[in-house]
Amino acid sequence: VVETGTPERSVVTTCAYCGVGCSFEAQMRGDELVRMVPYKDGKANRGHSCVKGRFAYGYAEHKDRILSPMIRERIDEPWREVSWDEALAFAADRLKAIQEEKGRRSIGVITSSRCTNEETYLVQKLARAVFRNNNTDTCARVCHSPTGYGLGQTYGTSAGTQDFDSVENADVVLVIGANPTDGHPVFASRLKKRLREGAKLIVVDPRRIDLVRMPHVEAAHHLPLRPGTNVAVVTAMAHVIVTEGLHDQAYITERCDTEAFADYVEFVSDPRHSPEAVEELTGVPAAELRAAARLYATGGNGAIYYGLGVTEHSQGSTTVIGIANLAMLTGNVGKVGAGVNPLRGQNNVQGSCDMGSFPHELPGYRHVKNADVRAIYEEQWGVEIDPEPGLRIPNMFDAALDGSFGGLYCQGEDIVQSDPDTKHVVAALSAMECVIVHDLFLNETSNYAHVFLPGSSFLEKDGTFTNAERRINRVRKVMAPKADYADWEVTQMLANAMGANWTYRHPSEIMAEVAATTPSFAGVTYDLLDEKGSVQWPCNEARPEGTPMMHVDGFVRGKGRFIRTDYVATEEKSGPRFPLLLTTGRILSQYNVGAQTRRTANTVWHDRDVLEIHPHDAENRGIYEGDWVRLSSRAGETTLRATITDRVSPGVVYTTFHHPDTQANVVTTDNSDWATNCPEYKVTAVQVAPSNGP
Ligand code: SF4
């Protein structure tokens, strides 16, 4: 990238970081990338970008890129560079040998929500059609799998209900467990504009995120709940709405399952769910919670935006259900300016779930036990599909440790750094006979791999990403793959080395197969995407232009379904040994484990994770600003610097997980969501003590 001179042509593509899905123009001179600029006609970003996306091209050309396949017999041996043929034959032979010894369910795949739809479709097809099992999972497991469950159960499909434009008609915005100014900056700009115009804001978050108090923006209510008590807060809001008669009875009678509603009213009216009854548990002043509930119910169009502070809990799915209940109670689904909007962390979380990468679902959220759905793919792929759901990521780790699982193809995901309870992950990988890492850089996971397959960056391939508003955006190849092959080609070559005969020549052919087999994508073609710029699914014969807003004429499942939301305390409790609660998040300039952002020009602004600690807790421990501290939990410990701030409440500490030097997930535990196994990253009982440094 030269960042200077006059471009001759431009290629419109999509940012590979967060779920906003900003469009960029890659300005080219010959085959040289001159600069990346936000695309003014991008429907998600309208010419804006954040600092991460603006500099994202940097990692594509970084010197750390691995450009040759590598293998090694054992993980304590040095890597050996080999040809693609040798690496793929080595991997295929090992995987086949494991299956011969342990059975066909003994190997699996993990794909990243950073990969394109087409890549993800092929990876789950590799598991189902070539490995002949359903051992396919995605890193959406560790972020938004509770969204899939909660919205599926209540509304009938796992998808945000609105487009981003909808926020321009919101009157009250409830942000819960999300920090848009850091995590989804371009959407946050649109939200702040609406707030400056007069919309009211309610923030539910243990930490005083920037939106609570910014120039010209101030939340009407901030509910600084104790980590782990989302369900109690959301249920208490519903209690206020129902017991004060603020619910929209006409909407509920027309649109919802009234029997389920009657049961829910009986549940939620119980005085044990009142704000006063849960005040001690949640730490939220009852009067403030009551006022927030009244505002949401009576303030006009009510829009809910939520993030991983909702999902990454032992009751993540229950909170999603509680949020869905709130929106139905107030008639805030199926109209503009309202809705339930999961802010997806990664660029293609929505798409990776749509494409069937979960072990129980084929593409389009159809259960693998459904013989009619299996028949569609059996005819398309010419193989019989295993009717048994496969292993989720944590189950793969457990199976590796009991000796029944021995081979893993991991595409674009550094599970050692990003998954919880690092020691457990490392032990599981160390027990496997064949770990294949397919990535841009050597990473923490590749330390335990036998095969390394070089990946291609978003600039080196064609495909599509689906953003948080279900918008399918084109990813267009700007430069040739530096390691010769795009990721979808590598997956195809691995499948063929295992004995398949795949013959895709371009990702558009993969999308054509998706469209032929998945009703919500039936009308999606690359020609349509080129013509319209992007399209939101469902896009099919009934909705050829796509669908900006869901559930307009009725819920996807028919009648919206209220479900009880019993609060169950997490097992992760503070106590004498670990008296503080740790919660984690992101900062604006870094992205997840930082594999890309640390290798771009914006890196200089933040170069380490730090621990936020309240002045009282710091004083009690003799900790001063900038001190090294030891952060320990029952899972492990790490060392980082402290910053003293009242953004966090007493008893709560906060850090990010961007830097491998910190490895914050050493301390997070193996607790997980009851319905989906999404890890409970957001609540860990910890101790903090002064330290001399790492
Ligand atoms: Fe847009 Fe997100 Fe990329 Fe920033 S990181 S440019 S908000 S898609």
UniProtKB/TrEMBL annotation:
Keywords: 2Fe-2S, 4Fe-4S, Iron, Iron-sulfur, Metal-binding, Oxidoreductase, Repeat. One of its GO terms (molecular function) is formate dehydrogenase (NAD+) activity. It comes from the Bacteria. GO terms for cellular component: membrane; oxidoreductase complex. Residues 8-64 form the 4Fe-4S Mo/W bis-MGD-type domain. GO terms for biological process: formate metabolic process; respiratory electron transport chain. In the C-terminal section; belongs to the prokaryotic molybdopterin-containing oxidoreductase family. This is Formate dehydrogenase subunit alpha. The chain holds residues 247 to 940 of 962 of the full protein.
